[in-house]
Amino acid sequence: MTSIRQKNRRQQTGMICAEKPILIIEDQKSLGIMLQGMISERWSCDIHLASTLEEATKLLNENNQYLVALSDLNLPDAQYDKILDTLKAFKIPTVALTGEFGAELREKILSKGVVDYVLKDSINAYSYVVDLIGRLIKNKAIKTLVVDDSKPIRLMLKELLELNGLEVITAENCNDAIKQLKKHTDIKLMLTDYNMPDKNGVELTVAVRKKLGKEKLAIIGISEAHGTNTTASFLKNGANDFIHKPLNFEEVITRVNQNLDMLGLLEENYKAANYDFLTQLYNRRAFFRIGQETVEAASAKGKPITVAMLDIDFFKKVNDTYGHDVGDIVLSQFSQILAKHFHDQLTARLGGEEFAIVMTGIPSSLAEKRLERLRSAVEETVFDEDGTSIHVTSSFGVVNSQDNNDLDELLLIADRQLYTAKESGRNCIIIDQA
């Protein structure tokens, strides 16, 4: 079982974990071991090696839940068609590895439904494979929307994208697309045709961009119209990319992967700027920006506001006794409890063992009950790692208000109440009515 310490280290190194193993089929064992090492260095996953079709078939019979198979096309006991047909029969997504290539072989390989093919002509080819593995792992968590009034095109794109691990939702027109985006708020990529019966793809792009920026959703326009006008219209109105019809499978996947990679970088930059690295709660900078907007909006509508400051009692003693690694684990687990109890409100780590909560639209009596449930949950939790069991408590300073929209002032009042909670013996909640 993976420990919390291991999860924290993976999080800190940016290592992504694959839930399913990877199968490498390569008759040159040194190449297989090299590729295994390159993948393991970048991604956390189990890797199984085979050097013949017989060995691969045995592994497939024992475990047919592989994320992907990386297969050489020329094995001692089989040629490319038998290898690819076997993997297809087991419904394993496959990346073909080949030492020689040509137009005829390319068409035959693609007709077998492979995810991709790689010409083994340099170390760069293996680096490409490693990057592709990472993309396939990440794709398992990504929803994609395909918008096209042509059912055959929708189904073709759906099959192609699902082959690359993406979850695909389809829409037959622009209005349907808007409904799907509202229903599935976690869609990360939209491919949209230009010509549709209600609105065109550019108009859809304009409508979507009013709600979702490029850091939230990547958009790829598609059209059979030749020339640059359609392309320019899409790009000028918020699309990230454009593909001409008739569609080339390799171009579609390459552009999809590149746009998802770019979206990932934007998301990482946003998280780095707004979230605390250890706890995954909002950081101090984001809290003051979002928190001020939140209390102003609530105050303008006459909604109740509750601001709480809290920290872990005697946290320095935890660090001094067990070390900072264990202290980090306590902070991480504490933050998970906090996030669970206040998933619908603004929470943040202000620094060290100090946290803050902003609640709006909740009667003060209910806010106080929720805070008490959090305090009790922390007190009852055993913070455990590698046999080390630690009990901690937390103290709260709270202020309730309805007309004060100055977050700094509310935090000062809450901080004074937190100090009083410490002076009163800790593990308690002290409330002020502003």
Short description:
This protein is of the alpha/beta class and 434 residues long. The chain is built from 16 helices and 19 strands.
Strand content: 15-25%
Secondary structure tally: strands: 19
Rg to the nearest angstrom? 27 Å
Tell me roughly what share of residues is in helical segments: 40-55%
- Annotation field: number of helices: 16
Mean pLDDT: 91
Structural class: alpha/beta
The major sheet is characterized as: 5 strands, parallel
What low-confidence regions span 5 or more consecutive residues with pLDDT below 50? 1-13
Tell me the strand order in the biggest sheet: 4-2-5-6-7
* First-to-last CA distance: 48 Å
Q: What does the overall shape look like?
A: flat
